[in-house]
Amino acid sequence: MKTLSNATLASLPDAITVPTYDRARLSAGIVHIGLGNFHRAHQSWYLHRLMQQGLAHSWAIVGAGVRPYDEDMRRKLAAQDYLTTLIELDPNGSSAEVVGAMIDYVPIEEGNGALIERMAQPDIRIVALTVTEGGYFIDPATKGFDASHPDIVHDAAQPRQPRTAFGAMVAALKRRRDRGIGPFTGQSCDNLQGNGHVLRQTVVSLARLSDPELADWINTHCTFPNAMVDCIVPATGPKEIALAQGFGVDDAVPVSHENFRQWVIEDAFCAGRPDWDRAGATFSEDVHAYETMKIRILNGGHQVISDPGELLSVETISGCMAHPLISALFEKVEREEIMPHVHAVPEFTPEAYVDLIKARFSNPKIIDTTRRVAFDGSSRHPGFIVPSIRDGLAKGTPVTGLALVSALWARYCLGTREDGSEIAPNDPFWADLTAMAAKAKSDPTAWLSMRHIYGDLSQEPRFADAFTHWLTLIYSEGTEAALAAYLAD
């Protein structure tokens, strides 16, 4: 068993693919904030594959984080020279490779001084982020910038010692402007419709609170390309560490992933970019169509199955797809209520994409927990489910199944499964959701009164009446009875 490091790469088992490039000769070009599993299995992998072709050696990644808990990841990665073992979980067999595109990790410190200065250096031309859908300080009511959040209030008052990634970006861009270095590209890699537009809104709006001239400079000179990212990447635990050890490598933070990736990017990079398309990414002027397909069908599909899965104590997403009622719910809602509002892209028709997602969700090798997928419903339901409801109401297509999905989420947020076991808090606003779910048990309309999630949907009888029907049935007869009733219709 070899502990992963530069020194042991050459002696790892032949079954593990390792970097063929000289990592000592790599130089930085990208700072990536939010070094979770998804980044290491997705964006880092694309860059690594370019490097394997002898390309992009001046675009290596410097990792970063802005919260104290990021220090644990920094420490573990530093101990293994920032290498990551990726384990592909194909139903036909697994494989492993070591990715070496990351070469450093900025120290985690209060005020983010080291991060600001690293982003201010001229070699950094892209600052990328994976900070989750709920991490962009969006006002849930207006979808605009939330200037009232305590972290934003702090960063506006103390721009030289920010708490947030966006405050650090603003401070770094100020230094670059003042030093005559020029802008960098801000690149969101999160599951948000128009994620580049959202990132621009957050960065420029925050800058405007303390330095309007700087905000104008950023808005004029920086670019924020939209992108769609896709790869199912479970959380890492003892099982994943054991998988890596089974290949003969001791990696403290390996990453498992499915045998599918997709990255569609708007080609808008003010300071250059790697040729990611040579590693399989797609540059497109119509990212929106790809985003809509993926967010509605895949991310929306995750919400369709994860809440009933949790309520029925089904632990994994593949287990949900093996459950006859939950898988049938997925099929019917996707094909009748989500797919009609999705347009084809060059690679897929909506029908073919639903088939693809069904196969991906059903992969038994991917141990992706229903709990992980159900996390942060207060961001994911309004982002992934509500748009399909609104389209259905506007176009006269069914919304009954989506009303059931919303009712299942309301029941999930009560905090107990149908077997009586407790659901541990699983949302940044869990206490608020649990309180509202308790009210909705006797008055279902209370749940739809959350305007920051549903807007005016409580005033739409076709949706609101169906929601009330389903939540009442769930409480009176149970989740399986509600699912069966919907499927029998």
From TrEMBL:
Instruction: Please tell me the species this chain comes from.
Output: Celeribacter baekdonensis B30
Give the Mannitol dehydrogenase N-terminal domain ranges: 29-277
Keyword annotations: Oxidoreductase
- The entry's protein name is Mannitol dehydrogenase
Residue span, Mannitol dehydrogenase C-terminal domain: 286-471
What GO molecular-function term can you cite, just one? oxidoreductase activity, acting on the CH-OH group of donors, NAD or NADP as acceptor
Domain of life assignment = Bacteria
Looking up Gene3D superfamilies in the UniProt record yields: N-(1-d-carboxylethyl)-l-norvaline Dehydrogenase, domain 2, NAD(P)-binding Rossmann-like Domain
